[in-house]
Amino acid sequence: MSRVTARRKTVRLSPAGRVERPDTLAVEEPLEIRVDGQSLSVTMRTPGNDIDLVHGFLLGENIIGTADDIVTARYCAGADSEGRNTYNVLDVRLRDPVPLHPRNLVTTGGCGLCGKSALDEVRTHTRFPLPPSVPAVGTEVLTRMPGLLREGQKLFDATGGLHAAGLFATDGTLLALREDIGRHNAVDKVIGWALRENRIPAHDLVLVVSSRASFELVQKAVMAGIPILAAVSAPSALAVDLAVESGSTLLGFVRGESMNIYSGENRVT
Question: Catalytic site residues (predicted)?
Answer without folding.
Answer: 111 (cysteine persulfide intermediate)
